[in-house]
Design brief:
The chain is of the alpha+beta class. About 25% of the residues lie in helices and about 35% in strands. The chain contains three helices and nine strands. The strands form two sheets. It has a six-stranded mixed beta sheet. This is Iron-binding protein IscA.
């Protein structure tokens, strides 16, 4: 019996996504506007957002979404949103994030960034942790 790791499965989705000519990562205009507003509010309008995946959380992985005052790392992918906001993604995270759309949602239960990730097999009830 052959077993496949979650990285193999996510890599297969990434390859299919790239072959279809779809964007590797999309930031909606509403999300980009909020990102830019937060960067300006903290006094670093030229900084970027680092987005990635790390091990942890109740289902295996959690998202990393933080400010970055440093230039991108050597192999980072730099995604530029409509208003010029830059999002840095490291290569290993991109395997799991390929095809993700970053939204900003406002609703009755609050507001915040939402990640529509086609690679996720399941997530926890709180939405903070995912599995691939």
């Amino acid at each position: 019996m052959t077993t496949h790791s979650s990285e193999d499965a996510a890599s297969a989705v990434a390859t299919t996504h790239a072959a279809a000519g779809l964007p590797r990562l999309t930031v909606t205009p509403a999300a980009a506007e909020i990102m830019q507003g937060q960067l300006v509010k903290r006094g670093t309008p030229d900084a970027a957002i680092r987005f990635g995946i790390r091990g942890g959380g109740c289902t295996g992985y959690s998202y990393v979404f933080e400010f970055s005052d440093k230039p991108p790392r050597k192999n980072d992918e730099v995604i530029t949103a409509a208003n010029g906001v830059r999002v840095y993604v490291d290569p290993k995270s991109m395997i799991y994030l390929e095809g993700t759309t970053i939204h900003f949602e406002k609703g009755i239960r609050g507001h915040g960034f939402q990640f529509d990730n086609p690679n996720v097999k399941n997530d926890c009830g709180c939405g903070e942790s995912v599995n691939f």
